[in-house]
């Protein structure tokens, strides 16, 4: 099912909302309630904007594009969470930080990684509900998100 929800960067001013390697998204609350079961997971798909149209939903978790594949596949999937984490009743932060895990890269494992983004982009994102038999529902792609160059820190000298 194609859901009408469109992921977006929060409109309110947040510290570090867009940096050179990360950005924040509003958490989609109540969006998946009618389309997901307790055993389903919700993934965030991150793709270079010019590659989002070519992205194909993976048929199973084993086929999920990994963070290390971003330079060649132009997309990856991260922030895997139980569908219940996005339910109307779930207490959760208002935003999701994309690219915030600096320990990513070279892990060699099959675990999803939310590592720093390698270029300013632009990127597009969407959320994908995966059941045990593959994709069940997805949101629309976001508008292009361009990271800010030269914003590696916010410290102000004394």
UniProtKB/TrEMBL annotation:
Any one Gene Ontology cellular component term annotated for this protein: membrane
The family database entries (InterPro entries) matched by this protein are listed as: Uroplakin-3 (IPR024831)
Name the domain of life: Eukaryota
**Can you name this protein?**
UPK3B protein
